[in-house]
Amino acid sequence: MPRSVETSVTGDVPAADIAPHDAANNTVRTDRPTATPAETSEPVIHEGGGGGAPRLAPSRVGIVPLTPHQLPPPPESFVGRVSELNRMEAWHREESERALVIALTGPGGIGKTTLACQWLRQYERRFPHGQLYVDAGTRSAEHPIAAAELLGRLLRALGVPAERVPLEMSERLSWYRSLTAGRSLSVLVDNAVSTAQVRPLLPDSTTSTLLVTSRSHLVGLTMEGARFMEPAPLNAEEVIQLLSHKLGRSRVLREMGNARLLAKLCGGSPLAATEISAWLAARPHRSLAHAANQLREQRQRLATLPPSDDFSARSVVDICYRGLSSPAATLYRRLAQHPRGDLPVELTRHLAGIEGSDCERALAELRDARLLEADPERYWFHDLVLAHARTMSLVEDSPPTRRRTLHSVIDWYIGRAVEADLVVTPRRPRFGQHYPHRSNDWPVWDGPEAALDWFERERGNLRAVIIEAHHNQWDEPVWQLCEAMWGFFFHRKHYRDWIDSHRLGIEAASRLGHPLAESRLRCQLAFAYLDLEHFEAAMDVCLPAPRLPEAGGDSAELAATLSELTSAARRGNDESARKVVRFSGPVPPRERVSPRSGG
Known about the structure:
The protein has 28 helices and 8 strands. With about 600 residues, the protein is mainly alpha-helical. α5 (about 145-155) packs parallel to α6 (about 170-180) and α27 (about 555-570) runs antiparallel to α28 (about 575-580).
């Protein structure tokens, strides 16, 4: 079947695309490999994993599909790539019985994402049902983002409420295929680490396209009929076009010979050309010859390092870094300690540690040097720049300095999470040490929904902060963040994050010998399993809790724990009830204080 070259642009979703979907639409297709648990990197739930009630297909729970437009903003300028765009267009026009898969591979800074976005924007009318985007990149290749997490992001973008996103990988995959069946969508998976991340994200439609960018050659996608392309380096004339766009044509024409030398030294890397242009634009009295000499000397210094495909881009980034003022260079290294390199404006200014115009000057310097990207709400690093900033921090900052910066990031997130939690659930008792200092603070949000939206925006960062604290064996922040995120998880139902974070939190509280915190987190985790109707899992996680508060003398928490056990027994099976009966111990005659009640 040929892929349509131009489909309807009304944006309406035919009813047949979503409903009615019978059981057959929920089965996994057999014409392509199915992701295994090992491939998905999804944590396995051992407690009562098979005890949940079967979930309905998306069409049976009233899902209204959205039309997402999630592509990153376009660059300031786009040059060349005519042959690459033509080849992608030719692939699209070929006949096929499955979605088109294109994998763009190559070193950092070569322009893979920019090329993918350019082609998708150029032919946006082909995808009337939306253009999806997920960043699969991670701080560590040893801990890639699970395919289940990426599927969860896509399902939410397609209109599935967070509380209805299935917990199990197989069900998420089934829902995703149901929601994409027969639709014309594009899905851009940026910075993929492995084939296992990508394979489950293939839309179930012949008129859809999956575009993947990766530094690795994802050979496993061959089984999906993927077309592979490594974008070529820009030629000298294209690099000169980029220089002219930033510096002005007249300045480049005055030193055309040096412009060509710069193009050669940039190695055809669009990132390197953009960075050196920004460096020169911030120094209008410096010649292109001076920049070429700087770059040539830097390449000689870096020649002693292990060779890499992004050598030219690294050289230019290093020149831009060496040209920073001391406050800007310090801030550059500080910001890189953030676990994801994606910071809200408030945290960026907090880490600057300087007031007023000095802070703004340092940030402006990083933006002008293209070492830090920005919009009105966030700052973020290109992945290659982030790697450079972390390397510079390892070289120039002491381990205690790096630890203090990371602690500052974690403490900031705890403080903000506490403030948001006090708006969401203002009256419930807390144990975290941050609460007494903030209980009378004036709310910084207009109301609970605004506070929940903050949690939503920072969800990925909060998850990364918990994992980073866990890896460093900083137990206090782990359980305190779990306590502060309770109201968010209860209202927005991100079950995977809820379960994974609370397992780490319970482990942390247990190591600290903090029975009250452990009991609180066990109760909070039990609610996730009760919502999912995983009654055995709720009982297993909750049964140790009643004895824990006795060591701390908190009878109200004990009463809350027993109440949750009773709820599980009533809703569960006979074995659940027998477990509750086997538990022995006094129940204090205190009013129940439940995390569900919020007060």
